[in-house]
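The records we work with from here on pair a chain with its fold. Each token is a code from a learned vocabulary of local backbone shapes. A record is reproduced here so that you can trace the correspondence yourselves:

_____
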Amino acid sequence: MEEIIEKIGRNTLEIVTLEELKEVLKKEDKRAYIGFEPSGKIHLGHYLQIRKMIDLQEAGFDIVILLADLHAYLNEKGTMEEIHQLAEYNRGIFQAMGLSNVTYIYGSEFQLERDYVLDLHRIALKTTLKRARRSMELIGREEENPKVAEVIYPLMQVNDIKHLKVDVAVGGMEQRKIHMLAREILPSLGWKPPVCIHNPVLTGLDGKGKMSSSKDNFIAVDDDPDTIRSKIRKAYCPIGVVEENPVLEIARYFLEYPLTVKRPEKFGGDIYVESYEMLERLYLEKKIHPMDLKNTVTEEIVKILEPIRERIKNR
């Protein structure tokens, strides 16, 4: 089991709680889920989450992918028809990433049912307005004139865990407050608190906040090689700076080690790097130039995404 735990825990920031996860792993039937709001291009930030779902699938979990159409509607991402069109395209990309033999379900398939709505009201009765708004970090807040949708959204996420009958909820760290609300409230509705796995939120290529299609600071998984090269060449990557360096983050979470950082002979030649920790140390010590780091990361990401692009093309 320790090997399985190590695999599930790699590239995560937090598991709440590890002991509960160990108990869930003993079950014959176990389910893990993640929700994706169809609202833009699928990028490396999503791919990091999908890879975690693949880890869980390999650990014996049945995987549920929520295509969160009603959540997207509450977040004003378009008409339901437009949202469904994008969701279907996203489903194809998730499959091209390697997430097959899983359950894909639209939120509207169950979130309008009587029992779901009654539970949503029960959750609303147990949640203060302040707590609900504090839990919501995904919808852009309009502090002077907030919409009711802003607080319905997180309560629905809590309710989804119960009605999808999942043991494990997965998301980025921005989901943490919602997941903690779920752990607090769901036992009063007759459902166990979920194990919560929180993954990193990738920094955008501009170094300003998270990677997001709405900010145009992302690498899409279907970007062609020239587009990837152009985006990374322009990315924020100050010399000797490790914190919130998007190029180093990509190197940390996506590249395989050992690897070779290629450099012209006149600048010292190639550097053999045994681990990400070694790469970070050398960069911090300014022994690797930002352009050499960018070139290395670029070509590795091009190779990693190539089979995904081909599968998308051949769908």
In short: DSSP finds 13 helices and eight strands in the chain. The chain has a mean pLDDT of 94.
